[in-house]
Design goal:
Elements (H helix, E strand, L loop, with lengths): L16 E5 L24 H4 L2 H6 L1 H16 L7 H12 L4 E5 L5 H5 L4 E3 L2 E8 L5 E3 L19 E5 L9 H10 L2 E5 L11 H8 L3 E6 L11 E4 L2 H16 L1
Parallel strand pairs: 1-2, 1-7, 2-3, 7-8, 8-9
Antiparallel strand pairs: 4-5, 4-6
Length: 249
């Protein structure tokens, strides 16, 4: 039986919804988060695998890090969980506009059926040429031996992922969506990394949107949200979506 949450606010039926997701929404799919005690940054240093300087210094180590994460993502055990599926349902059934802005570089939202989606930190399932910027799908391992399909420059391929110190993708489109939305929902993110961590403040400054946090525990930005629901994403997100759709029916 689906739990249904009591909502503090229901947007208008033609309301525009923007949803920010982080690693917490994929945790129950078997993908590690970053800052939980057993998270990725407890095992490997950002400075060694997730900066342009790291790639210039030791590209093999950076490729190995993303090859491991790409391989993990290919295992049968890693699949969309009920939270991803609930957001895909919301996209299908919500009468207004909806956009997911994810910080995640996995493809679980797509595999769940979501289509209105921005990967602001890129995806590890694509490669980008350091020289010409050509981006192509990439599911296997990547190494410095691989060449760019666009310009043929040897050794210039990198994961199409945004590293620390780099500009996230599609910020103009994201800001436009944030400034016109009626409901902003943040799911499974600790609120540690900007600009995503600042979206709730932007929404409240720019528009009249209601703000909701759905997370395992209060994030760093918890006090900025008008409504919050805490619990695991695979139970809390479907319950929230069910309540939203019931209220809009
Ligand atoms: N259900 C809901 N929330 C969960 C669950 C779960 N099953 N498991 C963990 N969480 C929550 C944690 O409590 C935490 O608040 O998800 C959040 C994960 O936080 P982080 O590990 O910091 O991940 P995220 O916020 O997505 O990191 C943002 O930092 O390292 C960079 O580029 C990386 O995109 C990433 C960015």
């Amino acid at each position: 039986m689906q739990d249904v949450l009591s909502l503090a606010h229901v947007p208008p039926r033609d309301g525009r919804i923007v949803i920010l997701t982080g690693a917490g929404i994929s945790q129950e799919s078997g993908l590690e988060t970053f800052r939980d005690p057993d998270g990725i940054w407890a095992k490997v240093r950002v400075e060694d695998v997730a900066t342009p300087e790291a790639f210039a210094r030791d590209p093999d180590a950076v490729h190995a890090f993303y090859n491991m994460r790409r391989a993990r993502h290919r295992t049968a055990a890693v699949a969309p969980n009920p939270a991803h599926l609930a957001l895909a349902r919301l996209e299908r059934e919500w009468p207004g506009d909806m956009l997911i802005v994810t910080q995640n570089v996995d493809s679980l939202h797509e595999r769940a059926g979501s289509t209105r989606l921005i990967h602001m930190h890129g995806v590890h399932s694509k490669a980008r040429c350091n020289g010409c910027g050509h981006v192509v799908p990439w599911d296997g391992d990547m190494s410095t031996a691989d060449e760019c399909a666009g310009c043929g420059a040897p050794g210039g391929l990198r994961p199409h992922v945004v590293w620390f110190g780099e500009m996230p993708l599609e910020l103009d489109r994201i800001q436009a969506a944030l400034s016109t939305c009626d409901l902003f929902i943040s799911i499974g993110t600790s609120g540690n990394v900007y600009p995503a961590a600042g979206f709730v403040k932007l929404v409240r400054r720019l528009g009249a949107a209601h703000t909701v946090e759905i997370n395992l525990e209060p994030s760093r930005g918890a006090s900025q949200f008008e409504e919050s629901h805490y619990g695991t994403a695979s139970t809390t997100v479907p319950a929230y979506v069910a309540a939203l759709l019931a209220a809009a029916a």
